[in-house]
Amino acid sequence: MDRMLDNNNLTMLTDFYELTMANGYLQNGLGDRIAVFDMFFRKVPDNGGFAIMAGVEQLISYLKNLKFMDEDIEFLRGKGFSEDFLDYLRNFKFTCDVWAVPEGTPIFPNEPIVTVKGPVIQAQLLETMILLTINHQSLIATKANRIVRAAKGRPVMEFGSRRAQGYDGAIYGARAAYIGGCIGTACTITEREFNIPALGTMAHSWVQMFDSELEAFNAYARLYPDNCVLLVDTYNVLKSGVPNAIRTFNEVVVPMGYRPKGIRIDSGDITYLSKAARKMLDEAGFPDCKIFASNALDEYIIQDILVQGAQVDVFGVGERLITSRSEPVFGGVYKLAAIIDGDKVIPKIKVSENVEKITNPGFKQVWRLYDRESGKALADVLTNHDEVIDDSKPYEIFHPDFTWKRKTLVNFRARKLLEPIFIKGRCVYESPSLEEIRRYCLEQVDTLWDEVKRFENPHRYYVDLSYPLWETKQKLLAEYSMGKSRH
Predict the structure, then answer these.
(1) Burial zone of 142 (CB within 10 Å; 0-12 exposed, 13-18 middle, 19+ buried)
(2) What is the strand order of the sheet 34-41 is part of?
């Protein structure tokens, strides 16, 4: 569990309109009405084929610590809220059911990734933190996974702490990057908190502090002979940096009984410099010395320089990863999907002139269907919550808009993606270790077809509706259309 969040009450980290609506529900006698809200997103960042779910552990910590403090009540009294609403908040007890897709799972647009069911006054108050937590970490995990895949098996280190948007952006961004496949981070506190390897050697300032580059290299090598990675671009990579590094390796590292770990290039033409440096290191007898590259890298630059033959063994990626600079917003939304009246589910739909903003109504479950022979994911299907997909029988999927596009699946395995996290306010989920989440993520990404994993024009993965759910949606749209036409 997250120690930092466990000791930090964030109940008031909510948009003010959550409180005005909650007060309004109470005043109108609706506070105890059971509602179902879904979090989902509409578009994969960077026009990718999929995103990566992350942030569930932090969401659990937040929900466990929901409590309005005396100072919160006094502050809200000053905002003009009624005393009966303040009494409700003072005695607040979380009683909702929550389901979530496990961290590390590939996720797709328009399918619920978090579902909350409970008194509407409570479910509404959760909106901001659910979105904040899942949006941020899913964004960074998704970007990290793209970069890791571009590196084609070469390790990627997250180096973005100093460029992150705030402390939490650095810490939880590093956590999400690790889930996405990075091997470690420059952010030291994350090793203490999450056991993510903290990595790093020297900056240019170290080299500049000494009278010569060689003296700086020698001093560092004497201190860390077993992990000697030298930054070779402070002055001139090929005329100074690499020759001095080789000299240090020969005169300090090897005599101490060690082999050099590597050199790092942080500027210039990485392709050209890495090729030349590799030749120099090999000729000097250090073919095992790795070449590290950094300097404003992302998946596209990494992909391009590797195509050009760059001799890079390890990548350090900073600002373009930790901020997802190319697309820094994960557009998750939180929408009312149903009202529960006793045993009756009353589906709710949001209709918009923008077709992509029309929601999928009802209390739902998400199923992923895998081919039993290849293990590949074939499609996701949204169903009513109590529906069951029987994978012992053929199952027909169809496009929810272009319904003539149909396919019958056989020999497949069906898996529920939304897992219970809280039942009646009690946590029933034990978060896996971060290492288990990371490993699970890489395994699940491998279940996707290569066409879905393309960076440019990826194949659109099927996210379909079951026939009963599709029928419900069409009925609501027809009712809306008839109602609209009468006004």
Answers:
(1) buried
(2) 344-347, 332-341, 34-41, 114-119, 97-100, 419-423, 426-427
- CATH code (residue 299): 3.20.20.70
Mean pLDDT score, 175-179: 98
Going by C-beta distance under 8 Å and a sequence separation of 6 or more, which residues neighbour residue 31? 22, 25, 88, 119, 120, 121
User: Does residue 300 sit in the same domain as residue 446?
Assistant: no
CATH code for position 388: 3.20.140.10
Same domain, 242 and 278: yes
Domain boundary among 322, 344, 368: 322
**What pTM, to 2 d.p., does this model score?**
0.96
What is the phi/psi pair of residue 379, to 5°? -170, 160
Compute the distance between CA of residue 483 and CA of residue 468 in angstroms, rounded to an integer.
Answer: 23
Q: What is the pLDDT of residues 244-273, one digit of tens each?
A: 999 999 999 999 999 999 999 999 999 999
Same domain? For 290 and 159 the reply is yes
- Same domain, yes or no: 149 and 273: yes
Strands 419-423 and 426-427 turn out to be antiparallel
Amino acid identity of residue 17, one-letter, is: Y
Per DSSP, 111 falls in state S
Instruction: Give residue-wise pLDDT tens across range 446-457.
Output: 999 999 999 999
Domain identity same for 288 and 301: yes
> What's the mean per-residue pLDDT of the chain?
96
For the chain, counts of helices (H) and of strands (E): 17, 21
Last residue of a domain, one of 290, 322, 354: 322
Domain count of the chain? 2
Q: Are 297 and 315 in contact (CB under 8 A)?
A: yes
Q: Which two tokens stand for residue 184?
A: 């470690």
Its domain, for residue 221, covers 141-322
Residues 398-421: pLDDT tens digits? 999 999 999 999 999 999 999 999
Same domain, 145 and 135: no
Residue type for position 52: I
CB 400 within 8 A of CB 462: no
Buried b (16+ CB within 10 A) or exposed e, 23-59: bebbeeebbeebbbbbbbbeebbbebbbbbbbbbbbb
Q: Residue holding tokens 């978060």?
A: 431
Q: What percent of the chain has pLDDT over 90?
A: 95
Quickly state the pLDDT bin for 484 (edges 50, 70, 90): low
DSSP collapsed to 3 states, 73-100? HHHHHHCCCCHHHHHHHHCCCCCCEEEE
| Same domain for 186 and 74 | no
Instruction: Give the pLDDT band (50/70/90) at residue 7.
Output: low
H/E segment holding residue 476: helix 467-485
**Residue 266 neighbours by CB under 8 Å, 6+ apart:** 204, 231, 233, 293, 294, 295
